[in-house]
Amino acid sequence: MRRQLAIMKSMGVNAFRTSHNPPSPQIVQACEELGIVMMVEAFDCWHTGKTTYDYHRFFDDWCERDATEMVLAARNSPAVVLWSIGNEIPDSTSTAGLAMADRIIGAIKAADDSRPLVIGSDKYRSVPAKGSAADLMLAKLDGLGLNYNTAKSVDGLHAAYPHLFLFESESSSETSTRSTYQEPEHLNTGENHTPGRRATSSYDNNLSSWTMSGEYGHKKDRDRKWFAGQFLWSGIDYIGEPTPYNVFPVKASFFGAVDTAGFPKDMYHLFRSQWTSEPMVHLVPMSWNHEPGDTVEVWAYANVDTVELFLNGKSLGTRQFDTKTTTDGRTYLETTEATGDDRTITTGPYPGSYTSPNGSAGKLHLSWKVPYEPGELKAVASRGGKRVATDVLRTAGPAHAVRLAADRKSLAADGRSLVFVTAEVVDAHGVVLPDAEDLIAFDVKGGSLAGLDNGREESAERYQASTRTAFHGKALAIVRSGTAPGALKVTARAEGLRTGTVTVRTTHARDVALTPAPHFEADHPAPPNYPYADASYSGRPDTLPAAMLDGDAATGWSNAFAKSATALLPAFSGARGEDWVSVDWGGTGPSTGWKCRSRWTRRTLCPRR
Length: 609
Description:
Elements: H1 2-10, E1 15-17, H2 25-34, E2 37-41, H3 59-74, E3 80-87, H4 95-111, E4 117-121, H5 133-138, E5 143-147, H6 151-160, E6 165-171, H7 214-222, E7 227-232, H8 266-275, E8 281-284, E9 295-302, E10 306-311, E11 314-320, E12 322-325, E13 331-334, E14 366-371, E15 376-383, E16 386-394, E17 401-406, E18 410-412, E19 418-426, E20 439-445, E21 447-453, E22 467-469, E23 474-481, E24 486-493, E25 500-507, E26 532-533, E27 561-563, E28 572-574, E29 580-584, E30 595-599
Parallel strand pairs: 1-2, 2-3, 3-4, 4-5, 5-6, 6-7, 18-25
Antiparallel strand pairs: 8-9, 9-14, 10-11, 10-15, 12-13, 15-16, 17-19, 19-23, 20-22, 20-24, 21-23, 24-25, 26-29, 27-28, 29-30
């Protein structure tokens, strides 16, 4: 938990929303120590539930007592700055909900009347009618948290309720997979539903119907001094709500700027470029292994105005952000161009693009189109003619070794303290292989494994195991200290690769855990169940691989995708020639089996021999 908050702070985060329940004392303490302020929230529903077994069963009997307990537990913390009475509450804009809100508000104010009261809501996409329940609800509150509102709707609400402070209680929710890239020329790509390849693009361009790009959320927040800020949904991927793929073995959301293992995605660096002042530059994509003949769209996120890109020492040109000024006098960096990211804008110099109140539009990244050649891609960021930051990508060669790195040099030998060890599959020069999926076996001496992860959203691998496949070249071992001071040694092995080791010092602790640590077994991938396919093949003999090519998603085979229009973006559809299907009936000889690959560009049927 503390590690997760520290990663968020390194991204520039200074506030934490407890969604959608009161925090544990440990989270409050960690926020105090890290200097992160808190919006403490109770309830994801009131009387009307969202699921069969949620809190609505207890609301009538327990809402006051639970709200009081939430406040009493956290009111003495200097980190707590807001109390929230709920999130996306179905009752909140009904007449009956007004009395429910009074009960919660009364309980909170009786325990602490020193902090503002707010609600997080998706019910205010437009200005409510005067005298309506939605309007009367706002009269009870000090602030309103908005979930996924357009800039135009935010401005309308501010004009109608100038006394109410507004903020984004859930922002962005673009979906992305670490080190996956698709079609940067499109503002909203489709998904690849092929099993084993269910991922979404990290070009900030895979959006659900209610969501918006990370860049859009930043611009909306930045341009309004009266807007109190945004809570990103979500900082870190989490188990549950497996958007946009609600199918096994996808188990996690794709919303995070960081994956479940704590490895940053490209979105982390976008937020860092807007929320931190230490000079930085980050290249997208974050690896430099591509196909001969490819032209790669390269982006740079940076918080300084000038970036020059070099390929194998040769300059590919300098790009610059323009320095602009908000209507209230604050400066910011942005390109000047149409962005196509807001179809609610129909007038002005940039129709169809988010346009700031100062009349300008632009992007929060710089871009180049680079004909691929292997070697080194380097970004050099400058401010005032002085080099202040760099980012370097190198083409990875064949896998050579597993490299381990621990996030600390020592920890207490109390049987409870944790060290987080990153495992990377690297070539002979130490470059991470971006597509490595080696099965890594971990062993610990002087401690024990607490869990393994790799950040992959589409995975059925067990967290409590001694093996984990690498995902885009990385895996994470969470290691628990033993109870004897000395050395804690972690070893990682993968077939055909040099073994990786790391040692951490453990120091004497007075209070030690008495419960023995559990032992984890290896979790080897299950053998294929033939006939086997790496697309949505049912295994039924009357299901034809050629159905993938018919453009009909109802067959379960189509790799054509269709994205409906969102509040901001027009509809889009397409298909990818590089997506293919392989069907294997399990044989290796010409008389026992058959393997075929099908591309969407032609119809192919591969019969069994």
